[in-house]
What does this fold into?
Amino acid sequence: PRAAYARAAERLQDAIADLDRATAIARQEGEDAPFTLAPVSNTSREQYHRMVERAKEYIAAGDIFQVVPSQRWAVPFPLPPFALYRSLRRTNPSPFMFYFNFGSFQVIGASPEILVRVFGGQVTIRPIAGTRPRGATPEEDRALEAELLADEKERAEHLMLLDLGRNDVGRVAKIGTVRPTEQFVIERYSHVMHIVSNVVGELREDHDALSALLAGLPAGTVSGAPKLRAMEIIDELEAEKRGIYGGGVGYFSAGGDMDMCIALRTGVVRDRTLYVQAGGGVVHDSDPEAEYQESVNKARALFRAAEEAVRFTAGSNR
It folds into this structure.
């Protein structure tokens, strides 16, 4: 046993040394350098500002309480699409990681958010709303967390979507079983942090996983409230149809369970071009530039992963 332990410890030390060498090489090659890829959006900064202002007009008129406009970027990606998935897995590990090859195009994602989950007869929706970029130091990170949790606009937006999540779960859950198990907690990812809550309920006998999914689609965090009118406004404001963005990715099990995430932090590769879409919730006191920057921050994880994949490949070929 001692000899086996010694061999295992030696292998672990070798693995740690390999990781340290890889980190040193990445730093030497400029891991923190600015992106060299140049994504092009289908919406200019000025157009995005106007989109936010128009959304606020609808809110002031009483059509909606909140809406989630978005923009889509395109950037050349000359590598095999699976290289993007491998890079994304390293640079932005997330609760839901996926890669689908549909032949003419590929879908790669690292989503942080449950759309709807059904497990053992329990329905879960976990709304994410409220975002800040990650800090450069632990102190800055904590300061940004405190700023986010103290932001009345962000808290109001999150509370609205928490209530919407309760309503969605309540459509298929037994009366009296719907409850939040977490409220206003912070989750951190590679480039952003979010406010997150968690809502559960016991699935009624006359409903199943599919009806739970239909009750949650589309997620309020990518549409708005009320959902139907928000979707109509999104259709008016956005330059292109969303495609997979904001949809669901997951599975149904033979035992009746289901796990679906929202297609966020998700890229589509077609004809050697990477498409990435991101947005943010607009409420009555939203600042257009802040909303624009939020959408950029959310897309950054995919851009960084693409940049890292290209840089790594270039370094390997030297």
The chain has two domains: 1-29, 42-316. Helices lie at 2-28, 45-60, 81-91, 138-150, 152-170, 209-216, 227-237, 288-316. Residues 22-35 have pLDDT under 50 and may be disordered.
